Amino acid sequence: AVFFSQTDLQGYLIGEGCASPLDVFWDRSGVMFVVEKVVSCISSIQTSAFFWDCENSSPLALPISRARQLISFYTMSQNPNMNLTLVLLPPLWVRCDRSDLKQTIWLGAEPLSTGNKIIGINLYTVTCKVSKKKYSADLEELKEMHRMRHHSSNLTVKGFARYEFLDATPLDSLALEDTLISLERNIYVDFAWNTVTKLLQTPSLTSAATLVRTPPPGCCCSTRVKLLQNQGHLMTGLTDWPKPVGGKPAVELVQKLLEGNFIAFWKCLPCKSDYTAAALPGSMKTLFSRRGDLDFVELLWCKMWGKVTSYAELVECFSQVMKAIQHGALQTWVHQGSSSLLSKLIKQSYYGSVDTVPLRGVTPVQMLLEIGVDKMKRDYATYFFLGPPPSLSKDYFMSTSVDLQEQIHRVQKLHHMLEIVDNCVELLKLEHESLIFLTQSCINYYKENPLNEKHVFQLPVRATLVKEFYQNAHPQVWRVEISSGRGQGKVTTAWQLSTTPPAEHLCSSGADILDTEACGSKEEMSFVTLLECSQVPFA
């Protein structure tokens, strides 16, 4: 929701710890105001304020003259010499349309204070020039420019670089029976270091490196086991039955499981591919060790899932099992924590009294889903919680005290965690032991938050682990920050070269940026961003 609006502009407040539009060219955090041009959309009035439903609209920039006017008004409101009632405001940043000679994309203002007293203000200008991989800057020139502007000789120079590792599994490499959707996988490695000797310097092996896993741009979904994709069909009792693909029918397989002696079936199981791992692509299969503790219900799932081709066949399979249970012909064990209806009936058979369950309506479909969820929870738990501790985390994901829908939701979280680990293992060849911190951070996050495939997970790593991937590659972002002074007196000059626009409004407000200047070749573009700061004291 926008906190204020006029005829030509609107503004919003970015809270502490929230993503900022400045993050792409400046590593700063904190509360700030952002002002931009009004997007044409429907408004409504609530408590005499305008609220705009513009979540799906791209931000628009203001003319540079209007932006300067706003910065001037803001500066005067913070000046103690203006005989006004002063209120220390968060920094203000205004989107600019790049129409001036310097091609300004942002103007900013940040008050300087000591206690409750405002002593000055920092004024920022951010410009962006677009070219075809060309730039004329030099590190020594940038340092000299900073010295001349701020009259300082003691400089601190820091470097930052981001390398992207993008992998897309081709659709034809996965059979439809794998029940997965192929998607791009994005992993970045961010490097930061203190000794910069030239522009576009390759990060040293002593640099601080952070692995960043993000969802593909514009992607709001991810790979999912088909069981989870079809969970909504429980509401109607309908499901998409797989087409017959050869082999023995599910009814015959279930019958052999019941008649052919439990031990004999167990011995032939390792040569089968009915595990949850079989429904995972590529290296994800290797992350799942084949469990040796499958109970009868899990074995039943292995035989039925992907083999049952109709509702009638599903009912027939469960009818065979129910008859065996009711006649005492099925004396087998199930995991103590199993919560499925079928597991409960088997446990009842230990004492000679079994409830009658009518196999009609949605019941057979729900029974199949229950035993699948139980098995998948145990599969994921075996991988993520094999060693000590974390018992509390395991209890959360294995809990049977919540309803089936919530259990499915938690399995989805586990699958998303597995995807993240697989991305790091497959693309960067990192061993699982190197991912313990990332795995634990995923677990901690998902214990407290709902499924969020847009969440960015980070993992500190040694630069040596990824050296062969970045030392011969070109960074997507390279930045140098030159600063001087300390505390309130610190001022910064930043120069950045990137392959993507440093501001969202560049894409929405300037087709000439993407077409004319880059000659229609988006891949050849580079964006040269320069941030300059001027410090103005209030005498």
From TrEMBL:
Keywords: Cell cycle, Cell division, Centromere, Chromosome, Kinetochore, Mitosis
Domain of life, per lineage: Eukaryota
Main location: nucleus
One cellular component term from this protein's GO annotations in UniProt: RZZ complex
Keyword Acyltransferase belongs to the record: no
Self-association and partners: Component of the RZZ complex.
Official protein name in the record: Protein zwilch
UniProt cross-references to InterPro entries, sorted A to Z: Zwilch (IPR018630)
GO biological process: cell division; mitotic spindle assembly checkpoint signaling; protein localization to kinetochore
The protein's role, per its UniProt record: Essential component of the mitotic checkpoint, which prevents cells from prematurely exiting mitosis. Required for the assembly of the dynein-dynactin and MAD1-MAD2 complexes onto kinetochores. Its function related to the spindle assembly machinery is proposed to depend on its association in the mitotic RZZ complex.
PANTHER family: PROTEIN ZWILCH HOMOLOG (PTHR15995:SF1)
Keyword Cell cycle carried by entry: yes
Protein family membership: Belongs to the ZWILCH family.
